[in-house]
């Protein structure tokens, strides 16, 4: 199944296309990430972009009333009789959280903000080296594991190790994330 990166699409399964991700990594400052991306074929890139979008979608996105000077709205939106002052999805029928009703240009055309797309790319390349066994151990409550063979012992500690979220993706998405205990630390 082909990747669907339709902005505000009812069946969209990615915030960006393979071509957009290729362009991002072709100019990436960290060559290890760029090399990891280049080693993938198009089918692998589709799968990892789709999976990374699913991870980004688990973040609780800010949905509150717009007030004060914290947010600069496009002029066309400020003058629009259709904007009710609450941040929400651009279209009721869209599958993904972005674009939101404030993610519009001067012509009121919807777009996915650049930091969201960059978070997607960073999440995608992070997932290539993610050790899911650590996450699985944490999910069932293990914080360490030991193996014994005679007098030899091996310990593996899982405490605080591993997160499904790329640190760079969380940093890029911080402005959009609704505050929870997990992401309150600055």
Terminal CA distance: 39 Å
Strand order of the largest sheet: 1-2
Alpha-beta classification: mainly alpha
Strand content: 5-15%
Overall 3D form: elongated
Question: Which blocks of ≥5 consecutive residues have pLDDT under 50?
Answer: none
In N-to-C order, the SSE pattern is HHHHHHEEH
How many domains make up the 3D coordinates?
A: 1
Protein architecture, described:
With 186 residues, this protein is mainly alpha-helical. It has one domain (18-180). Helix content is 35%, strand content 6%. The protein is built from seven helices and two strands, in the order H-H-H-H-H-H-E-E-H. The chain has a two-stranded antiparallel ribbon with strand order 1-2. A hairpin with a 2-residue loop joins strand 1 (144-149) and strand 2 (152-157). Helix 3 crosses helix 5 (114-127) and helix 5 (114-127) runs antiparallel to helix 7. The longest helix is centred in the first third of the chain and has 16 residues, at 42-57.
List keywords for this structure.
35% helix, 186 residues, 7 helices, mainly alpha, elongated, two-stranded antiparallel sheet, 6% strand
Produce the secondary structure layout.
Blueprint: H1 18-26, H2 31-38, H3 42-57, H4 75-78, H5 114-127, H6 132-139, E1 144-149, E2 152-157, H7 167-173
Antiparallel strand pairs: 1-2
């Amino acid at each position: 199944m082909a990747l669907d990166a339709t902005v505000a699409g009812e069946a969209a399964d990615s915030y960006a296309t393979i071509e957009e991700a290729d362009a991002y990594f072709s100019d990436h400052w960290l060559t290890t990430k760029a090399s990891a991306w280049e080693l993938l074929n198009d089918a692998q890139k589709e799968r990892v972009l789709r999976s990374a979008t699913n991870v980004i979608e688990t973040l609780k996105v800010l949905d509150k009333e717009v007030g004060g000077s914290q947010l600069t709205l496009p002029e066309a939106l400020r003058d629009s009789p259709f904007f009710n002052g609450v941040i929400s999805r651009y279209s009721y029928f869209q599958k993904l959280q972005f674009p939101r009703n404030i993610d519009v240009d001067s012509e009121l055309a919807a777009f996915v903000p650049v930091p969201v797309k960059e978070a997607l790319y960073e999440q995608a390349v992070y997932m290539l080296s993610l050790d899911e066994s650590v996450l699985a151990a944490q999910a069932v409550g293990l914080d360490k594991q030991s193996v014994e063979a005679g007098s030899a012992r091996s310990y593996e500690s899982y405490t605080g190790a591993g997160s499904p979220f790329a640190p760079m993706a969380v940093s890029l998405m911080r402005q959009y994330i609704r505050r929870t205990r997990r992401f309150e630390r600055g």
